[in-house]
Structures are given as C-alpha cells and as structure tokens.
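My current task is to audit a protein record that another person submitted. I need someone to confirm that the token line plausibly describes how this chain folds. Take the sequence as given and treat only the tokens as open to question. This is what I was given:
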Amino acid sequence: MITDLPLEQLRTYRPEVAEPADFDEFWARTIAEARAAGGAAESVPADTPVTAVRVEDVTFPGFGGEPVRAWYLAPHADGPLPCVVEFIGYGGGRGLPHEHLAHAAAGYAHLVMDTRGQGSSWGTGGDTPDPHGAGPAFAGMMTRGIESPDTYYYRRLVTDAVRAVDHVLTRPEVDPTRVAVTGISQGGGLALAAGALHDQVAAVAADVPFLCHFERAVRITDARPYSEIAAYLSVRRNVAEQVFRTLSYVDGVSMARRITAPTMISVALMDAICPPSTVFAAANAMPTPPQVEVYHFNDHEGGAGEQVLRSLRWLGEVLG
C-alpha cells in the first residue's frame, strides 16, 4: 500500500538535509588518496560460453588501491563506444556475465562492478572482499565503521564506484565523452555518488535509489537495510548524533546537489525499502530537474524490465 506522502507533495518535497561543511574536501581527499595509491588493472577473457559479445574478467584498483572485480562486456566493435558503468543492489555481487547482456546488446560497452564485502545475499555471488575491520556493528553493511566517516564502509564503496569510472576511461575503445553510470537501489545510490564526484560522467540513471535522506528513511521504514541503523541505535543509544553525521557524508541528497549531468531517476510509490519521499528528496535537490519515472503500483522492484527499456531509450537520446 501507499504509506508515504501523496505524489503531488512528493514532487515538491525539499527537506532540510544536513550536510557537513567539509563534504567536498572529504571526498576530494578520499578520491585523491585512492588514485595516488596506484594498483594494477587486469583484464582477461572471461570463462563463459557467451560469444555474441566480448566478455572480460576485470580487476581494477579501488579504495586504497585495493583490487575490485568487475565484468566488462562490449559489442565486437572497435569503437569509440558509449559506456555504461553499473553498480549492484544491496547484498548482491557482479554475478555471472550472461546476466548482464542488455547494454552490450544495445551497443554499449558495459562495466559491471562487483561490491566489496557483499555478494552472498541474493543472485549468483560476488568475488571482492572488503579487507577492513570495524567496531561493534549490527549484522549487514550499514553500520560497519559507522563511528567515523573515515572508517565507514560506504566511504570505501563510493570510492570504488568513482574508480570504476576511472577504469573505463583508460580503455581505448570507450568514448570518454559518453560514459554513464547506473544502478538499482544501492546501485542507484552509488550512481548518484559517482555522478556527483566524477566530472567525466555524462549521464546518470538511478533506479529506486538507496542511501538517500537517511534521517527520514531510518524513522519511517522497518525494512532492511535502513532498519539496520535503527537496530544499532536501539542498543547504542548515545551515538545517534555521530551516526547521522557519518551518514551525511554519503547521503544521496548531498550528492544530488552536485550532479550536473543529465539524470533519470525512477521511483515506486509503494516502495517499503526505499520510501519515495527519500528518492524525491534527492531528485528535487538537483540543480537541473531530472527525468523522473514514477511507478504507481510497485514496491522496490520498481519498473523492472520496463525501466530497463526506458533507461536504454533515454541513454540513447542523451549519449547519442
């Protein structure tokens, strides 16, 4: 059922979302350190029976130069090719190559980034560890290292997303002026972050994005992953101020304020995992209004295959 604001209120919903004064400095420092850490990229033919498109098993340096796995799929063409970098939803990993054929079939180079420390909750798995410890945390990823923005898990994951864009820009067949980022749920939140933090992203397609307007999300939904934060705070009763300060460094609303590339966002009005008000808070914060695709009768699955088609058509118009 619809449990959030009516659509007419959602379209104008612009809440006050706290943003740390050193937000830009924090991310500039984090990304500069990751780039300076180096680390070698490797790309080898994938072990797959898929032959209609080119498929490579990629490792590229992410946060701290640490290895991140990915699949790279592309048409058998010399280029220059438009490229889509895709990020995965919470708990999932890069899966298997044949699960990611749509973009290559539509003529795009396509990098599917694995998600460090995840990949064992649904789908067909992931291959990238997160070699960092954390203090006391609730089960899941949302509270790992949440004591400080410097140690927070999503600092590392957002940096991986930016470095994934760096990687495709090194590939000779990719047109550096036509690189888009996309993802669903957690992947949509990472797409907003990469669009905000990488100045060569030419388009952003974020579906039912997670990681937006934390202070509202944690209070209005019982669904995971946001409920992991509430559960943590129900035990660690005296650290709420610090927790929300840490989360403010990765909030999609603050990221959205910095996105200048054309953007498409999808939202589902019956979404209990990423409530629509949290999505509209990000959409309405953008300097240039995004194209918003609304699914009136859907939960967190959003537009599913229909949204894939809408996104591909929109990318074709934006990237040419």
Remarks:
- The mean pLDDT is 97.
- The chain has one domain: 7-315.
- DSSP finds eleven helices and nine strands in the chain.
- Strands lie at 42-45, 54-61, 67-74, 81-87, 109-113, 174-184, 203-207, 263-268, 291-295.
